[in-house]
Amino acid sequence: MPRLLPYLLLAPATAFLCLFFLYPFSLVAIDSLTRDGTWSLANFERMAGHWKFGPTLRNTLLLAAIVVPLQLTLALLMASMVTRLDRARGMVLYIFAIPLGISDLAAGLVWLAIFEQSGFLNSALSGLGLIDTPQLFLGYQSKGVIFTAVVLTELWRATAIMMVILVAGMGLIPKEYGEAAEVFGASRWQRFRRITLPLLKPSLQTALILRVIMAFEVFAVVLALGGTNLPVLMSETYNWQFTMQERGVAAAYAMVILAISVGFTVLILRLLHVPKEARP
Amino acid sequence: MTFDHIRSAALAAAVLTMAGPALAEPLFWSTQAKPVEETQRMREQVMAGFPGGVDYQPSDEGPWITRIQAEAQAGSGTIAVLGGLHGDLSSLGAMLVDLSSIDTSAVGAAMLELGQLGTGEQKYIPWMQATYLMVANKKALPYLPAGADLNALTYDQMIAWTKALAEGTGGPKFGFPAGPKGLKHRFFQGFLLPAYTGSTVTEFRSAEAEGAWNVFKELWKYTNPASTGYGFMQEQLLTDEVWVAFDHVARIADAFNQRPDDFVAFPAPAGPKGRAFMPVLAGIAVPTTAPDQAQSLALIEYMLRPETQIATLRATNFFPVIATEIPADMPPSVRASAAAIAAMTGAPDALPALLPMGLGDKGGQFSQIYTDTFERIVLNGQPVRAVLDEEAAVLRALMVEANAPCWAPDLASDGPCPVK
């Protein structure tokens, strides 16, 4: 019986995963690979042949490539700051984490209220006498501005999730390493690069995987700020499923998102791998 | 940018979670009257008169059809009555009961025939109708080109007018509902293309169609670039962001109701092939899985009564399908629209172009082809000929896949509607 206990404890979670993840996932995979009941790659051909597929893939990858490194830098800064605080640490942490409590659609709407033609940015600019008439920032001609607005919103909204993980990770690093380095005259930057960063690898791994996967699933923020002007993988998936009612192609898009997510997860796991014997 | 697409998505989500089976009232599952104000008026002013009350639940088309299919597959259901556009209902033929027993003598024969969906049975009963109109702020009228008659404009005059407006007021004043929830595709399918080609599908890549898209590109120069975010044109008309607009009558109503003296409604412009316009017909039907067929039939009869039809008109701005006197106390939007609809349908060059039919669940993909063509040609500046050739191939494949014969104004076809 004691030998079986661990498996019994794992059983509910495993059953849950099989029922609500693996089973639907295999249905989606089958959907993407069949057409009219026969196995075919027609859905993937249809997806790749559509004129929006290229821009969609490019937008999503570019968004992730810009947002994630920026967030990583910011989250490291914020986490280092929070870790060094003696007083009011909890309060600062909570304030940083406020955007986490807001749904992504609500965050998109908050920033839409800033950028739209009758929004706060326009009122502020005209109040300062910088513009005469309200400007159209998020028009179809200014995709760059829409892109920037999405980047800003994502930074505001989801940096804290990385920060929280990194703060926890930094708390696990024994103080002795830093103190020893200080004795040998290491500067603050050297200590950060040679001690904190390497010892933070496991947390960085978690934070990056979580954040990169979220970046490929970006949807509500883009929809709120860009409508159909800035197509991303998730918005096209939604479009094929609900507007065009073509489940097969939507499933193909879902498989592409999955493939990219798995690919990057494996890459991050490899790059930030810490051998067991090297762990503190 | 508007909140509309988000608002109706949220509404649909709320509806899905609310529409539980525990209610004793008959469930009216509809794709119409989705904006929350309209839903409320449907419940309080239209449905309240039915003995025992009605649970009126609007939904987006996707979830709407998903639930119907799920109930049909399960073989039992809670939906008592379905409401939807002709195109929504046309794919459901086998799941609907024959309604021939309902007294429909007051309804026009042409509309009733549409309700048979090509079968011998009365699959749905016409419920309400509407169309799309042009609206102008009266401030825009002095800019009309010399000699132009507002009730008989051509597309060339339309361009001259919007150009004069853009130059005279310092910015483009024409608004077009090209946002995610805007009905832009209906303009291309039912107005622009038929006016120039006399066709929606067959002549999709003809030289005339190429001309039509070039005309629209010209018009787009004088169109507010924020149009790609517009959903319901009444909002931008009321903020004076645009002075002239095209939209569905139900989506311009607020402009007339809030400032009745400031706006005029007028027919769509005419092209070389005529004044093309798209009549919209909504119908009500009973699914075979309805829990209480007698109650469902009673509700359908109730919806056809003259007083219910007028109440529906008040609630949704959809016009009655039966010949009935429109009371003088109707909202300004109804009076304005009724006159413009009469002028458009009665014009000597009137060319009705029906909503797509026979496409089943491919309706969304069909419209996406017109939206894609617009986005590629007008927004992304791709060459017209190449885009039309590419999208025509997609359209041809879709018509074959859906096996949909042509509908007016395209000439009837034996097999799938051909794309030349």
Characterize the structure shown.
The complex is a heterodimer of chains A (280) and B (420). By secondary structure, chain A is mainly α. Chain A has a domain at 62-229: MetI-like (MetI-like fold, Orthogonal Bundle). In chain A, 74% of the residues lie in helices and 1% in strands. Chain A contains 13 helices and two strands; from the N terminus they run H-E-E-H-H-H-H-H-H-H-H-H-H-H-H. In chain A, strands 1-2 form a two-stranded antiparallel ribbon. In chain A, strand 1 and strand 2 (38-39) form a beta hairpin. In chain A, helix 3 packs antiparallel against helix 10, helix 5 crosses helix 7 and helix 10 packs antiparallel against helix 13. The model of chain A has no long low-confidence stretch (mean pLDDT 90). Chain B is an alpha/beta fold and 420 residues long. Chain B folds into two domains: 4-129 and 280-330, Periplasmic binding protein-like II (D-Maltodextrin-Binding Protein, domain 2); 132-278 and 353-402, D-Maltodextrin-Binding Protein, domain 2 (3-Layer(aba) Sandwich). Chain B is 43% helix and 12% strand. Chain B has helices at 4-18, 36-46, 61-74, 86-89, 109-114, 155-169, 184-197, 207-221, 233-238, 253-258, 293-304, 306-316, 332-345, 363-379, 384-402, and strands spanning 27-30, 55-58, 79-85, 125-130, 132-137, 174-175, 244-248, 263-266, 275-277, 280-285, 350-352. In chain B, helix 6 runs parallel beside helix 8. The longest helix of chain B has 19 residues, at 384-402. The radius of gyration of chain B is 21 Å and the shape is globular. Chains A and B meet through helix 5, helix 11 and helix 12 of A and helix 14 of B.
